[in-house]
Amino acid sequence: MAERYSRALMKHFTDPQNIGKIENSTLAATGFNESDGDGVKFYLKLEDDVLKDVKYTIKGCPRAIAASSFTSEAIKGKTIEEILQLDPKKIFDELGIDESFTCISMPLNAVKRALKEYSES
Amino acid sequence: MKVYLDHAATTPLLPEVLTYYSEVLRDYPGNASSLHYEGQRSRELYNWAKQKIADCINADYDEIVFTSGGTEADNIALFGYLKATKKDRPNRKKVITSTIEHEAVIETVKELGEQGYDIYFAPVDEKGIVDIEYLKDNIDDQTAICSIMYANNEVGTLQPLKEISQLCREAGCIFHTDAVQAMGKVNIDVSDIGVDMLSASAHKFYGPKGVGFLYVKKGTPLEPVFYGGGHEKGLRSGTENVPGVAAMAKALELVTEKIDEKRDLYSRWTDQILETCKQLEGVQINGDPENRTPGSMSLSFSGVNGEALMGMLSMEDIAVSTASACSSHSHRKGGSHVLSAMHCSEEFINGTIRVVTGYDSNDEQIDYFCDKLVEKVNLLRRLSNG
Q1: pLDDT tens digit sequence for B211-247
Q2: N or C, which terminus of chain B has less Cβ within 10 Å?
């Protein structure tokens, strides 16, 4: 465990932040791993293009849980434009996981995909 | 409190074995192949270990070949037999195994396929029992060797070896079994089973790592698959691991004496853990409830990722293993090939942990595990449900 999971990853995995749902969210963002049924669903509350609140539900491995928690903290309070600019590499670096684990980038990619569609609609 | 419940992965040395192992390391420095007095002392101990191992499985002294472990024993059995019989039995090109074998056999058989043998993987039912009808249909006068594991490493299911050995005998082919997960957990009598070769590994029965053995029934043709000083009748060259085999023999002697006692104890703990699982909806118990290695449980939880559950339990100093590795990584295998072969749903495969009790387990640990299991499954389900 100690070698494979960094301290930062364990912090988010064992105490994930912003878990839950938002009743009147502006939009939802989902990421899903078809091969094993794991997935995350973000509830995003926007006000004037600013993400005022974010919650999510998740079924996933420790990396996916930690990445979702980290992502929720990283995007909260930011504008749509700022979120779309976020580089997933930052999450890999912060959590100490190499980039071959796609479950780390799945949460941010899901949020960015949903926000892009929302902006263009 | 540390709670180790991963005894199918490996077992800690028994205290008596550790003491004995240390003494032999200290007191028997001689090379067992040396002809001087130190060498002869080591040789005597080496021979004692071989006789002890043979006695534990109702074999003869010269039917035991010491190896570095189960994987090496499996490789020597399969490659060694086919190499020895290639010229005399050219029509026997079929190699039969099952879909739920350990990689030590599966990968070896795949390599034999690459070398031109016709390889067959027998399916299993939902309990993990190999399809006997498939074996009846495919074991014939074209079959060289059939290798079916004694007990599965993930779900503990015991296979009907006597029935399979009968099929092999009738077809004139050799029957090998990987008994790594069964040795020390169930009474093994090679004559009663009718097996030709059997592999075992010491660290699975409270002996040291890096040592194991292959039982080879008298008269079974076998050639070396690697070469050197000709140790172990040429089948496993390399300086004899005297402390390793002595400690292995001591461990097997000790655990064999306690098989019945431990079966009853483990059965009580298994009942307690399975009863705890009933408090949680969406639970599946994998394997054959009537016919598996004592203390082995494969538990699947819906709405839960097995690796996350293992990680949560590990944070509470509980060690279990998971059958699922995160499939998001390009270099990692996804879910368990064993559970897939048993037609387990992806949802359950993804949410599986393996729990195996052992000699160092106790009532207090099992109570603690049961409490934490319920707590962590519920916690992970809250994460997925919000």
Answers
A1: 999 999 999 999 999 999 999 999 999 999 999 999 9
A2: N
- Facing B384 at nearest CB: one of A55, A59, A106: A59
Catalytic, B344? Answer no
Q: For chain A of 121 residues, list the mean pLDDT of each consecutive stretch of 10.
A: 72 95 96 82 96 96 93 96 92 82 89 94 83
Q: Do A10 and B328 touch (CB under 8 A)?
A: no
Helix (H, G, I), strand (E, B) or coil at B292: strand
**Per-domain residue ranges of chain A:** 7-120
The reported pTM is 0.94
CATH topology of domain B259-385: Aspartate Aminotransferase, domain 1 (3.90.1150)
Binding-site residues on chain B for chain A (CB distance < 8 A): 303-305, 307-308, 311-312, 314-315, 324, 326-331, 334-335, 346-347, 349-350, 380, 382-386
In this predicted complex, what is the ipTM? 0.91
Mind spelling out the 3-state secondary structure of B87-146?
CCCCCCCEEEEECCCCHHHHHHHHHHHHCCCEEEEECECCCCCECHHHHHHHCCCCEEEE
